[in-house]
Amino acid sequence: xxxxxxxxxxxxxxxxxxxxxxxxxxxxxxxxxxxxxxxxxxxxxxxxxxxxxxxxxxxxxxxxxxxxxxxxxxxxxxxxxxxxxxxxxxxxxxxxxxxxxxxxxxxxxxxxxxxxxxxxxxxxxxxxxxxxxxxxxxxxxxxxxxxxxxxxxxxxxxxxxxxxxxxxxxxxxxxxxxxxxxxxxxxxxxxxxxxxxxxxxxxxxxxxxxxxxxxxxxxxxxxxxxxxxxxxxxxxxxxxxxxxxxxxxxxxxxxxxxxxxxxxxxxxxxxxxxxxxxxxxxxxxxxxxxxxxxxxxxxxxxxxxxxxxxxxxxxxxxxxxxxxxxxxxxxxxxxxxxxxxxxxxxxxxxxxxxxxxxxxxxxxxxxxxxxxxxxxxxxxxxxxxxxxxxxxxxxxxxxxxxxxxxxxxxxxxxxxxxxxxxxxxxxxxxxxxxxxxxxxxxxxxxxxxxxxxxxxxxxxxxxxxxxxxxxxxxxxxxxxxxxxxxxxxxxxxxxxxxxxxxxxxxxxxxxxxxxxxxxxxxxxxxxxxxxxxxxxxxxxxxxxxxxxxxxxxxxxxxxxxxxxxxxxxxxxxxxxxxxxxxxxxxxxxxxxxxxxxxxxxxxxxxxxxxxxxxxxxxxxxxxxxxxxxxxxxxxxxxxxxxxxxxxxxxxxxxxxxxxxxxxxxxxxxx
Length: 670
Fold this sequence. Notes:
By secondary structure, the chain is α/β, with parallel strands linked by helices. It has 26 helices and 20 strands.
């Protein structure tokens, strides 16, 4: 519906409905952020009423426009819009804003509220997620828009705040989007010039427009309360074919509040009963009942939804006929969106192992070529580290502004943005995204990894250079606390394979794990390949921990290890057995998978009767106490590393068979 077809009374009534529903919800909750919803109501309603393409009855329609509230603290604005435009968000849900179990939590949560595209709140994340969605849209349009039939042609709209634009992730993501000329992005910057501490001028005085122009974005500057200017800017941005667009909308936070408009207090505090009453009086709004929605506004929104239904049905007809008439296109669609994993994939991966000793990063790199051939939806790249992480798909070109047919994404030295963009790719659907860097630099990605786990997204992280055995680069590049730190993130699977064969099983586990992210932790240095004709199959990795070498009788001592330390633990176990000790070795590639087993299995691996338990891992020790208990022995590292060759470091820090046996002897006299 064209905004210029509405008279001023209708438009003001609709915008004030958004304002006052939001203010009433925050007031009832006595918690929340009324300032942004009240200040951005004009731009939001214009966008939804005239431009946004959606279907409230099919929130996951592949060709919908995505609306991202990167400034997630303004969540009640989104809930209000979802309710008005027919999503499964009732007025009672609005009234339960921020209450336990409601559909309207304090910040938008993906998978919890229909119509919420992404979990936002940590500022800048939504901005980067939108870049990932825009990239996904370009990738899939390249593959599925054929013979004059357009399956994908939507846009990514976003609301970003001053806080979003201060965060570093936004700069990285904006630079990436401008480089790739992602013209399907239209972000509106709610420039109300107020933050929690006061006016943004106390800390944020840069020229945002010039900064984004330097990133190769198209810039528009408008009055965020002038409906004609909003329409004109969005129209121009929609017609932009070469650059992403940033519409800088000058707004007044808490618009309509006589005493709190343009103040810091309205950012994150309810108006208060008296100020809410004064605001309604100023806007000519009924003081009661609360949560009032005029029938005229309901009809306007229903009319818009009805208009969009025809467009939705036309797309469905096009989609159905396209796939029906082109079996190859139908097969391609299924391969992207169903993400089926070939049953014989693990055996194919094992065929790539040609050496007796190989770094797991190198083994992974060879296996990725096979995976990419059989699973076309695997797409990703590294933070300028492909030669080191071995993650370049050799059979496909790189993505670039002139072609999105490739599969290798050059994220540049932008780990923070890479994490957020990967989440956007996963949220969009149709791809299995991966991103690679050194384990040390996973810290830059941690907020995005946490959100991927929270949203249950299938993202695969390839973290190489996994320990002090990075060697000569020294302590700045040698991860110590990173494994325990990643394992502390709920719903993140951290897999550190013991050798090339476990690396194959780790990839299978990651590809099959569709409701959460997986971190593959891989070595820089060569390590022995375990002979699976002598030892149990690597497919036991699916249990998270398994007996690699068992004792002849119930064990007197159990050794546990991960990654490169498994091979030295295996030698130590063999030497103990040669001395007549009933020793067992367990490979523990994934704590999360092990915890998920029934107690019966866990007790068969770690029988309670055995009290001599040893953990060996070149990382921080803390998370091993769960398995060895307070009386166990942990051979780990709780200090920073040093610059030296890997073998020298192994001896210096005690990661040798000899030292393991010495430590066991000192503790138990074995």
